[in-house]
């Protein structure tokens, strides 16, 4: 390994694992110990990444309090440091990390709140895509329509939770009262960017199954079958119209 | 871009106000990595660029990485620059990536022949893909490597002559580095090749304790310090007027405060320009 590459690997170990030994040998010890100088860099790395995660997960931060959040994400940053410099893409695994984090075991809904905030973050920054309009659908005959695969607009996440995470999220916006009846039960949500805004829509179980299947790449026929398994009385035409009106799909 | 103009870093708390009021600012700087997705942020910038020259300032290319730069990230930068057509594009004399981990800091480099070779390769590759000249910014230093035989301004001079890149001279960083590592900030500026300087940065810094000593931290969280204004005036005498930027990234103040700070730099730039014209 080249000396510079070796030095950078040592610096990475010092920043993420606190393993200063390799890099401290390379650093001048003039008045301030080498370890204290490296700590200046480590401090910035952790505070700036913690701030980035707070910005992406403001409701989670508020629910557990900032100091607890900082402590919880310290281990996350070590285990899952960023893979790239666009910090709006950092933090995808935090919901799963919190779900397995022992100190959060008393907050069973917390990971799903994090999943909702990640979905909203994805919606805000997703690339702009051309929706599949009604004209494109009209051009297809019945056989082509049954075979058609589509994908969801890249801003969309379909999210199911056994907790009323949309109500929890709204209650924790500024001006919210922070009070939620957890017995309201499960929700199925569609998170999507519409224009410049991120929109949260609550869906029924059948519509959620239909849209989730389409978003996962199922054919229209397969998606319809999955919807009818949940509720055979749903009017398919209405569901398709809603999907088109909401500009949910782009060509697959 | 007019060399006598002082721009400001456009930060999210000010975007709506700048869009609505269109204050008289010679140019706006944005961090490249904040605009590499889709959505409202990029759309807003596309509207603003009709009225303001832009500077795209990258913080994530990691030009000092011995393992080379990330081709996918360079592609994203190229697409952004093609879309925004900025007047200036800049990056840093630092590294942030090791073994595909992005460490979110402008980390220090030993100034050796090996490092110069790495920088020259990476800057050359980036400039080839961008089809334009990059300005490379001197970082704030908090440590010195035992083996770093080339002085920082000489290292930048050599990099500029090897690659044709320009230098973004961050005067606050010069001040912070010299205070932290023992050096004469005026001599630092005097050693830099004036012809390579394409832009100047100004910002505030803070003082923190480390091992019982005060260390200056380049936190961009306060007004420009009096000593840095003095150093800026020296830089203008040395380099002539250059596009100058006020950076304010933490504890971001109301826009008016930032514009007042830019006006202070603007007055000094105007004096330099009028002396040069006389």
Concise overview:
The complex is a heterodimer of chains A (252) and B (278). Chain A has 252 residues and is mainly α.
The structural class of chain A is: mainly alpha
| Proportion of residues in helical segments of chain B | 40-55%
Q: Which two chains have the most extensive interface, and how many residues on each?
A: A-B, 47 and 51 residues
Mean pLDDT of chain A: 92
Strand percentage of chain B: 15-25%
**Poorly predicted parts of chain A:** none
| E-strand count of chain B | 12
Q: In CATH terms, what is the fold-level topology of chain B?
A: TIM Barrel
CATH class of chain B: Alpha Beta
Rg of chain A, rounded, reads 23 Å
The string of secondary-structure elements of chain B, in order, is EHEHEHEEEHEHEHHEEEHEH
Assembly status: heterodimer
Query: Which residues of chain B form runs of ≥5 with pLDDT under 50?
Result: none
Blueprint of the fold:
The complex is a heterodimer of chains A (252) and B (278).
Chain A: H1 3-17, H2 21-24, H3 34-56, H4 58-64, H5 66-79, H6 94-99, H7 110-125, H8 134-138, H9 142-147, E1 150-152, E2 157-161, H10 165-171, E3 187-194, E4 197-202, H11 205-215, H12 220-230, H13 236-245, E5 249-251
Antiparallel strand pairs in A: 1-5, 2-3, 3-4
Helix pairs in contact in A: 1-3, 3-5, 4-5, 4-7, 11-12
Chain B: E1 6-9, H1 15-21, E2 28-31, H2 40-48, E3 54-57, H3 71-84, E4 88-92, E5 95-98, E6 101-107, H4 113-130, E7 135-137, H5 152-163, E8 166-170, H6 171-181, H7 185-191, E9 197-203, E10 206-210, E11 213-217, H8 226-239, E12 244-247, H9 255-277
Parallel strand pairs in B: 1-2, 1-12, 2-3, 3-4, 4-7, 7-8, 8-9, 9-12
Antiparallel strand pairs in B: 5-6, 10-11
Helix pairs in contact in B: 4-5, 7-8, 8-9
List the defining traits of the structure above.
heterodimer; A: about 250 residues; mainly alpha; Outer Surface Protein A, domain 3; three-stranded antiparallel beta sheet; two-stranded antiparallel ribbon; 13 helices; about 55% helix; about 10% strand; B: about 280 residues; alpha/beta; TIM Barrel; eight-stranded parallel β-barrel; two-stranded antiparallel sheet; 12 strands; about 20% strand; globular
């Amino acid at each position: 390994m080249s000396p510079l590459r070796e030095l950078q690997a040592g610096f990475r170990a010092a920043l993420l694992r606190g393993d200063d030994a390799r890099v401290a040998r390379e650093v001048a010890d003039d008045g301030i110990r080498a370890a204290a100088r490296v700590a200046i860099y480590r401090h910035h790395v952790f505070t700036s990444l913690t701030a980035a995660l707070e910005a992406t997960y403001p409701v989670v931060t508020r629910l557990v309090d900032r100091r607890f959040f900082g402590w919880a994400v310290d281990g996350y940053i070590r285990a899952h440091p960023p893979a790239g410099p666009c910090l709006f893409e950092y933090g995808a695994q935090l919901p799963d990390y919190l779900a397995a984090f022992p100190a959060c075991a008393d907050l069973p809904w917390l990971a799903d709140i994090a999943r909702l905030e990640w979905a909203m973050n994805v919606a805000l920054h997703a690339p702009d895509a051309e929706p599949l309009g009604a004209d494109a659908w009209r051009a297809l005959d019945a056989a082509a329509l049954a075979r058609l695969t589509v994908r969801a607009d890249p801003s969309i996440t379909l999210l199911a939770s056994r907790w009323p995470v949309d109500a929890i999220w709204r209650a924790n916006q500024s001006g919210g009262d922070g009070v939620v009846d957890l017995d309201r039960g499960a929700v199925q949500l569609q998170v999507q960017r519409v224009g410049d805004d991120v929109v949260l829509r609550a869906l029924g179980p059948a519509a959620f199954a239909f849209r989730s299947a389409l978003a996962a790449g199922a054919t229209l026929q397969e998606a319809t079958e999955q919807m009818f398994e949940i509720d055979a009385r749903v009017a398919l035409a209405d569901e398709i119209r809603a999907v088109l009106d909401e500009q949910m799909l782009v060509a697959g | 871009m007019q060399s006598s103009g002082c721009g400001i870093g456009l930060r999210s708390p000010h975007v709506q106000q700048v869009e609505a009021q269109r204050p008289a600012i010679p140019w706006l700087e944005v961090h490249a990595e904040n605009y590499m997705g889709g959505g409202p942020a990029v759309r807003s910038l596309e509207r603003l660029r009709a009225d303001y020259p832009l500077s795209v300032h990258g913080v994530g290319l990691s030009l000092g990485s011995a393992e080379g730069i990330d081709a996918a990230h360079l592609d994203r930068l190229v697409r952004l620059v093609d879309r925004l057509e900025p007047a200036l594009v800049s990056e840093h004399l630092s590294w942030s990536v090791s073994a595909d981990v992005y460490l979110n800091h402008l980390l220090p480099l030993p100034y050796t022949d090996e490092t110069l070779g790495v920088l020259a390769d990476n800057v050359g590759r980036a400039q080839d893909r961008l089809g334009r000249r990059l300005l490379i910014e001197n970082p704030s230093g908090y440590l010195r490597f035992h083996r770093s035989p080339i002085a920082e301004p000489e290292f930048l001079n050599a990099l500029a002559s090897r690659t044709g890149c320009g230098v973004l001279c961050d005067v606050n960083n010069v001040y912070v580095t010299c205070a932290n590592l023992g050096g004469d900030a005026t001599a630092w500026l005097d050693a830099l090749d004036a012809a390579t300087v394409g832009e100047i940065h100004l910002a505030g810094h803070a003082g923190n304790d480390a091992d019982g000593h005060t260390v200056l931290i380049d936190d961009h969280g306060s007004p420009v310090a009096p000593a840095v204004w003095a150093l800026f005036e020296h830089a203008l005498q040395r380099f002539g007027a250059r596009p100058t930027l006020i950076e304010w990234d933490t504890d971001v103040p109301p826009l008016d405060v930032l514009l007042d700070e830019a006006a202070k730099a603007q007055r000094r730039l105007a004096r330099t320009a009028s002396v040069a014209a006389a």
